[in-house]
Records
---
Amino acid sequence: MRPALLFACFAAGLTATIAACRPAPGHPPQPMLNPDQITDFTTLYNQNCAGCHGASGENGPALDLANPEYQALVDDASLRRWISSGMPGTQMPAFAQSAGGMLTDAQIDALIAGMRRAWSRPNIFAGAAPPPYAQNQAGSAQHGEQIYQARCAGCHAPSPQQITSPEYLALVGDQALRTIVIAGRPDIGQPDWRHLGQSAPLSAQEVDDLIAYLDSLRNPAAAAARPSNPSKSSAPGR
Ligand code: HEC
Ligand code: HEC
């Protein structure tokens, strides 16, 4: 049995699931489907993703993949990249067999197609243009701090879970922060880029600046040496 299935048997911890993992008494064992052959979306999702991203793509510790704004924001190439190779700066593991994971490329394609089918909604942005999914220009950490005070601190400063603490920021990469700021997390009450405390939506530049500010808090000493955070494409691990 491959680790993905083992994990599902143990992690679920439910009698029904354990029963499903063993042949019922008095019955010959069913011929087992080679795990590489499984391409059913629900099975693949439940076995590999649900533990972190939530049973139906929400209310898990990690991003709600079922958020239709997220599905509209992210392109297939990015999905394939994160699922195959993992997401730098976060707990998101690499799943492609070529990267040491357990899934074939066909299974990763089945996951992407299945997420689109289950969780996309047509015209979810209703004409509004969100800031681009990926950062495409350098941000100003200084300006980002002002944006944080105006748009985020009202909800986050008094919270016991400080998103500005280096401990929190060490666990979450820049793209993950950016995704949450733009698409929101309806499952935990994080508003999207249009509903952040003022009448105007956050602009693309403001998102870049905000992420530059949060990034500067990860390592305050390094940030002091480069206050207006250049493009981070060369920084490993983010
Ligand atoms: C061990 C926990 C864990 C598992 C298992 C896991 N993920 Fe993730 N994933 C994360 C974390 C953490 C992030 C970063 C976002 C966040 O912090 O919420 C992430 C990020 C992602 C992203 C990128 C989000 C973005 O910003 O665009 C995608 C896509 C994704 N996961 C899909 C999957 C799929 C599909 C599976 C199953 C094949 C899976 N993940 C399994 C923890 C996990
Ligand atoms: C209207 C209130 C509100 C505003 C404004 C707001 N947030 Fe949040 N945010 C929340 C809530 C509620 C949560 C969920 C908190 C939790 O689960 O502990 C959250 C969670 C988050 C998370 C995820 C934390 C995690 O557990 O992974 C991030 C990142 C985040 N917010 C960033 C921001 C940023 C950056 C801004 C400003 C652009 C902002 N938020 C503005 C209410 C808000």
---
Amino acid sequence: MVSRFVPNVNRLLARFVAGFVLVCATATCAAAAADKDIGRDVAANCANCHGTDGRNHAATPSLAGRDKAELIRQMREFRDGTRASTIMQQLARGYTDAEIEAAAAYFAAQKAP
Ligand code: HEC
């Protein structure tokens, strides 16, 4: 059973590595495309409280259409503990600078509610 499983894993791994090398070798813009997806993916984590695509009609502020630099600054302040919050301080610690910037770009590009 183990001997049958191991070659399958190796084959999958080989395919994964081959695919990865192919993408990286053929498109220098792949990084930019990936950034866009990171922004959308991180923004999806915010939807429960800030609404779909950052458009909210409840108490939690909308993020859609806001200034990118301001969103980045606020997230960093939450993360560094210099901006008072109930929950954002904990959440902001889970994201890298690149993820925060990507999500801020995504929200800034959305239509304000
Ligand atoms: C569990 C609910 C929740 C989630 C999930 C959440 N937030 Fe928040 N957010 C809040 C609350 C509540 C506030 C008000 C400050 C506070 O009390 O933490 C806030 C405030 C903010 C503010 C400041 C807005 C302003 O105008 O003052 C920003 C920016 C922000 N959140 C970004 C994000 C981003 C980006 C994500 C996803 C990575 C996210 N939030 C996920 C609840 C949430």
